[in-house]
Amino acid sequence: MILRYKRVLLKLSGEALMGDQGFGIDPEVLQDIAQEVKEVHALGVEVAIVIGGGNIFRGITASNYGVDRVTADYMGMLATVMNGLALQGAMEKEGVMTRLQTAIEMHQVAEPYIRRRAIRHLEKGRVVIFAGGNGNPFFTTDTTASLRAVEIGAEVILKATKVDGVYSADPMLDQEAVMLPRLTYLDVLQQGLKVMDSTAISLCMDNKLPIIVFNLTVRGNIKRVLIGEELGTVVQGG
Question: What's the distance, CA 171 to chain centroid?
Fold first, then answer.
């Protein structure tokens, strides 16, 4: 089997862990994700993961209700650590050695983020989960994903969503919305498409790092992307 990519960064939203629940973590969804990652890891792919915290706490939303934005963002970062611990537990239950690194130091539960150590873990066949955002308020986990991917030398960002790819409009609201299989970074920025935030897209553009947006809810899709099947939306240079 020929793999298109050797080292990848998988971006998971916190909402991906909720399943059909309105809040928190669905154990079945968590197990499914862990099993999917195990399958691609067994192929020899080096996998790093950035995880969000929106299923527990979303900083920018809380700031709209009177919580100081900086405080709210730090609370959101802590939510990502909780998700990271849950995912680490699910991965290791599947027999995959995993390391959780956080941008905010909390030695009792995770390693601090150290770039060279993260790369060494990947080289040794461990899955690395990055939590705590990038340690600073006002940045999303999309930006963290772009930053970490560039730092560790990932060849692609796999942006896992609940839809098949990027659409011209919200497919839930507009029946005429069509999926866009290929986009440039400038397309995303100029059309305001909701792929990742503008800071994250700009960082990928500056470093020529492709993004593949695909549906995580379909079993086997991560593997299909890695073996080169045409799936989802690919964002790269023109």
Answer: 22
